[in-house]
Structure formats: C-alpha cells, structure tokens
Amino acid sequence: MSLADQMKFRDREMVPRALVRAMFGLMALSIALVAYAQISDHPNTGVLIEAPVVESRSVTLSPRGLGTYDIFEGGTLIASSDDDLGGFYGVIGRVLERRRIVHGADPALPVDVVRRENGHIAILDPHTEFTIELIGYGADNIAAFARLLD
Predict the structure, then answer these.
(1) In this predicted model, what pLDDT tens digit does every residue of 5-32 receive, in sequence order?
(2) Three-class SS of the chain
(3) What is the pTM of this model?
(4) What was the pLDDT predicted at 82?
C-alpha cells in the first residue's frame, strides 16, 4: 500500500468511538451525581472541619538569602530554615510572601502558628485571610512548626 493510501485511513479512527462515548457517559454521570447531591442537600464529605484553636504563637517569617527564612517572635530569633529539619520554614515563608505580594500586604507582618483542639497545626495569616492547614505535608515538616508551639 502506498503512503498516500495509508494516510487516507490513518486518521479515520485514532480513538475508538466506544471510548469517546464512555468518556462522555462518565462526564454525564458525574454531573448527575453532583446535581443529585446538591438538590437533595446531601451533607458534604471529606471537607476539613476547622477545630477550635487551643494554643497560638505569633511569629514573623523573615527572608534571609535565597530560600532561607528566620523566624522571630518579638524581635528574638526562635528558629531558622537552616536548623535541622527546618527547611519547611522556607517553603511556607515563600508561600506567605507571594500571597502578601498579591494582596498588597506588608511581608514583615506576623502570622499565627496554632494548634487546634484535634491536634492539627495550622498557620493563619490574618492580613490576607489565608490559612495553611498542615495536613499531609509529612511528619518532619509538621513537627517543625509544632516545635514553635512547644
């Protein structure tokens, strides 16, 4: 068969018709399930419930060099991303810094590191109304911020 003949039939059915129908069927089923849940007032599942705060500490994350952050409380250095297992401070520091730039807030303002009633650790930025719930970031990363409360 010549190349011209091969090209005529090549693009005819790259994706089988049954697969395309199945894909659209799954989309329609998903939309129907969501619509049913909304219409029937089915309670949301898998939604984070913010437990009450039992302990809080106001700290300032201050950048120092490329990706390095120092953590101050009232002008006193209490931790640094250079500390053992403290690299996550830099990650959160960059997130908060970017968020504050976008919202036009002063990056030098403090954030609150809180322990909730259920034991979860969170970072609350009241200046941008931003909350970082430290769930699923790894035990060492969560422990870095938990140490700030101990």
Answers:
(1) 766 666 666 778 899 999 999 999 999 9
(2) CCHHHHHHHHCCCCCCHHHHHHHHHHHHHHHHHHHHHHHCCCCCCCCCCCCCEEEEEEEEEEECCCCCEEEEECCEEEEECCCCCCCHHHHHHHHHHHHHHHHCCCCCCCEEEEEECCCCEEEEECCCCEEEECCCCCHHHHHHHHHHHC
(3) 0.68
(4) 81
The one-letter amino acid at 17: R
Q: Are the C-beta atoms of 64 and 70 separated by less than 8 Å?
A: yes
Token output for 56: 């809080």
**Residue 112 class from Cβ within 10 Å (0-12 exposed, 13-18 middle, 19+ buried)?**
middle
